[in-house]
Amino acid sequence: MTIAEPFGFAEDASSASEVGKNVYRPPRAGVAFQRTESGKGDVSADNLSGLLGQVSKTSIGEIDSLISELQTLRRKLQTDGERIQNDIAKYTELSQQVMQLTAIITHSVKKLPSAPSITH
């Protein structure tokens, strides 16, 4: 299996010849990756596929988790919406009953004989 190992900034030729004599280092500055030789010296499709699978596994898991959370929130939103609609319907019915009761009381009070005035 080919392993990519990061190495730092390019060093001068004297220090490069002492460390890692069998590893090719490009003569440019900056961060790069070196390829450690496998049996054939090339990168196989299976190795790349495995590496890609490992890299994407975490992202796919996070996306699946987010989808699950969103579905849970959707169900909660639907349940809460239905509950609120039921509460509004009950409030409307109760309000209408109170209005009818108020009208009945008002009508009944108008029919009462007027009380005699009190004089001192």
Summarize the structure.
The protein has 120 residues and is mainly α. The protein is built from two helices and two strands; from the N terminus they run E-H-E-H.
Structure notes:
The structure is a single chain. The chain has 120 residues and is mainly alpha-helical. The chain has 2 domains: 43 residues, no CATH class; 54 residues. The chain is built from 2 helices and 2 strands. A two-stranded antiparallel ribbon has the order 1-2. The radius of gyration is 41 Å and the shape is rod-shaped. It starts with a strand and ends in a 9-residue tail after the last helix. About 21% of the residues have low confidence.
Counted up, domains total 2
Counting helices, strands and paired strands, the structural category is mainly alpha
Distance between the termini: 114 Å
Strand order of the largest sheet: 1-2
Which series of helices and strands comes N to C? EHEH
- What's the β-strand tally? 2
Helix share of residues?
A: 55-70%
* Continuous helix count: 2
Largest sheet: 2 strands, antiparallel
The parts where pLDDT drops under 50 for at least 5 residues are 5-20, 26-34
Average per-residue pLDDT, rounded, comes to 76
Shape: rod-shaped
Which radius of gyration do the C-alpha atoms yield?
41 Å
Strand content: 5-15%
Q: What's the topology here?
A:
Blueprint lengths: L3 E4 L5 H6 L13 E4 L9 H67 L9
Antiparallel strand pairs: 1-2
Structure keywords:
120 residues; mainly alpha; two-stranded antiparallel ribbon; 2 helices; 2 strands; rod-shaped
